[in-house]
Amino acid sequence: MIRTLLLCVALFSNYTARAEPPQAPPLRILTYNVLYGFNHGKAPEIGAKWIADQKPDIVALQELNGFKQGTLEKIAKKWNHDHAIILKEKGFPVGLTANSEITVIEKRLDGMWHGYLHCKVKGMHIFVVHLSPSRHAFRMKEASLVCAKAKPLLDAGESVFLVGDFNCNSPLDQKWLDARPKDKEIIDEKTAKRRAGNSDPDSAVMSQFLDLGLIDLVHAKQPTAELQRGTFATRLLPKYRTDEQRKHKAWRIDFILADPTLAKRCSSARIPRDKEVDLISDHYPVEAVFAK
Fold first, then answer.
1. How far apart are CA 206 and CA 143, in angstroms?
2. Which of 24, 34, 199, 248 has the most CB atoms lying inside 10 A of its own CB?
3. Peptide bond preceding 233: is omega within 30 degrees of 0, i.e. cis?
């Protein structure tokens, strides 16, 4: 009798363990400026393999120069994504790939330097941006356009990501940026004027997005010392090859921003610095992982 009872308990425990639904895997999102189509077209295979190794669910890309819709679809399959959308097929396109269906909400070029892509994936709105690299005033206008689209979604309680290359500083980094030694490089008048036009007083561009309530995930999850290493530039550029050359010269200009509800689900956010990325681009990628 006891033997029979123990057998029944064992069988029931085994059944219960089998009957429990498997735990859903985390959601992993990656954004990456890949430098003119993966280092000027020299490293698409290295780039594709590195992305595949990260096992992302969603990948946002900037500087897909030379790519068309078909070529993006083809390379995305190398990291097991059967869905891909490119903004345009000339200039500096942004793109989005995913392991589930992508619904395009808007492809916007008007009023934008490179344009933005607004899609919906897994019930979440994703804006992929690449803001002006050289004109602060233009970036301010671009930020206003994106905010005008994102605000109603946030007010309605929708899930929203804003990702990409923002080409601007964050006010959250202002303290350590201000503490950097001042650049004593002697420059000509033309260069000085260009730099003045590109400067970002008070991190005003990023402040527009943060004022919407969007959360900078890497800032929330990483210590200041890691933030100071920046997302630009990698050791691919000659001026950034050594640690001494990189000291006080790195910039954090690539971001994953998320609405507060998504941010609470974020288990980790980082700037991957694997040796391969120094061969792929002058930017480091940014990654965030979310509990289901």
1. 8
2. 34
3. yes
Vertex 263: Cα angle to 97 and 24 (nearest 5): 65
Tokens of 175: 């303290």
For the stretch 234-250, pLDDT in tens is 999 998 998 888 888 89
Residue 115 lies in a domain: yes
Domain of residue 93, CATH code: 3.60.10.10
Q: Among 24-38, 54-68, 69-83, 211-225, whose mean pLDDT is lowest?
A: 24-38
Q: Is residue 9 part of a domain?
A: no
Total structural domains within the chain: 1
CA distances from 83 to 36, 46, 152, 222 (A): 21, 20, 27, 31
Which residue segment(s) compose the domain that 47 sits in?
Answer: 25-290
Residue 261 CA: distances (Å) to CA of 27, 150, 222, 278? 14, 15, 19, 34
